[in-house]
Amino acid sequence: MAGAESGSQKKVFDAEAASFLVKELRESFGSGRTRSYEWRVSQVKALLKAVVENEDQIVDALRSDLAKPPLETVVYEVGMFKNSCEVILKELKHWMVPEKVKTSISTFPSSAEIVPEPLGVVLVISAWNYPILLSLDPVVGAIAAGNAVVLKPSEIAPASSSLLAKLIEKYMDNSFIRVVEGAVDETTALLQQKWDKIFYTGNGKVGRIVMTAAAKHLTPVVLELGGKSPVVVDSNINLKVAARRIISGKWGLNNGQACISPDYIITTKDCAPKLVDVLKTELENCYGKNPLESEDLSRIVSSNHFARLSKLLNDDKVSGKIAYGGEKDEKKLRIAPTVLLDVPQDSLIMGEEIFGPLLPIITVNKVEESIDVINSGSKPLAAYIFTNNKKFKEQFVKNVSAGGLLVNDTVLHLVVHTLPFGGVGESGMGAYHGKFSFDAFTHKKAVLYRSFAGDASLRYPPYTDTKLRLMKALIGGSIIGIIRALFGWS
């Protein structure tokens, strides 16, 4: 296995090693084994078994990497991956069947179909915040589509990365499925190779590096990025329920370290103080009076991220805007849930994706103004709205462009496998989940079938005026036009 240790000496994984790995996998893929339904199902079942049998180890790894509460791991990492596998096992045979399509009179007699085929050898580069789910969910989609796969887990979650390498080596067919551990050097070596698709989850800065590397080989990419996902709160709602759902999506998802986490709230000047009061009460109900001691909050992943979040919080434009929270423990890398009120839009915290436990609230005179506020920035990965106003809801859905929208809740669209999950604009490109994962790693091959019968001289030289009229009619697909052309009628 690439990236493994040999005795006490760790093998160097450089461009040469990466090239050898890809060559090896291409030779294996050439055998055709991954194209069979039986192989695909066997590997999906093996990966599901690896996760089910090692759930305790997964919980421990995420505790080590992120101090992630076991419930969050079991639900959002293990549980969601199990669901993905179950959908694939139930639907895969149907997904693999070629789709019959209609043909036109211009190719008569003929039949046609769209044949789904694997792309080949693909690379999955995953993220640290949900290191199990964001690694295995794309991988299982690539396997279901019949590809050979290399997974590069994030080095920022080392316990999870190590566990993934061990599990895939133990449970999977290593002729086709491999893990490469490491950091920038290893990722760079992998990106220098020619892949049939690259699937990257992470931030826009690295996303641009991935896309630039892919362009050299004309390799297609899926980029699952992020952005500033807004939450619009109308005044005509149950604020308690809204607050709890915002808390669940913000601090209940890895303490805000999630790509679809609510990034900021927009509400009216009148509603904002009431919302803050409800958020205070519900946050205390969830995490107690001293949230830094709560075992239900993940820690900040690293000292670098802690320093970045501290900088946002210490900005002169927002340091006096803290309405709740703000406590920090640098030694333990913990930051309490923090609500900031009346944050100016030109502050540092509004200039980048927060990816942490800070939640700014910006106010408008009328809630309808929120649409212009959102559309003035980059398109987010998710946008949330809480309202009972049917007209405003319809206006929001029609006019706000985001990877996904959710009305009267947060993040739950993630678990609906019949919905595509992906970004738009700077929040990403491509989508996955459910059949969309299968499609992301599949080429839909167009196939037209004809016999030797019905070979008309019409398409062959010498060209005549009659042939020209008939060809025009055939291309137009008009029966009446063909009859008129045959009779020489204008």
How is this structure best summarized?
This protein is an alpha/beta fold. Helix content is 41%, strand content 18%. The chain folds into two domains: 5-225 and 434-443, Aldehyde Dehydrogenase, Chain A, domain 1 (3-Layer(aba) Sandwich); 230-422, Aldehyde Dehydrogenase, Chain A, domain 2, CATH 3.40.309.10.
Structure in words:
- InterPro entries: Ald_DH/histidinol_DH, Ald_DH_C, Ald_DH_CS_GLU, Ald_DH_N, Aldehyde_DH_dom, Aldehyde_DH_NAD(P).
- By secondary structure, the protein is α/β, with parallel strands linked by helices.
- It is built from 16 helices and 22 strands.
- The protein folds into 2 domains: 231 residues, Aldehyde Dehydrogenase, Chain A, domain 1 (3-Layer(aba) Sandwich); 193 residues, Aldehyde Dehydrogenase, Chain A, domain 2 (3-Layer(aba) Sandwich), CATH 3.40.309.
- Helices cover 41% and strands 18% of the residues.
- The strands form 6 sheets. It has a 7-stranded mixed sheet with strand order 12-15-16-11-10-17-18, with helices on both faces. Strands 7-6-5-8-9-20 form a 6-stranded mixed sheet, with helices on both faces. A 3-stranded antiparallel sheet has the order 3-4-22.
- Helix 4 packs parallel to helix 5.
- The longest helix has 27 residues.
- The radius of gyration is 27 Å and the shape is globular.
- The N terminus is likely disordered.
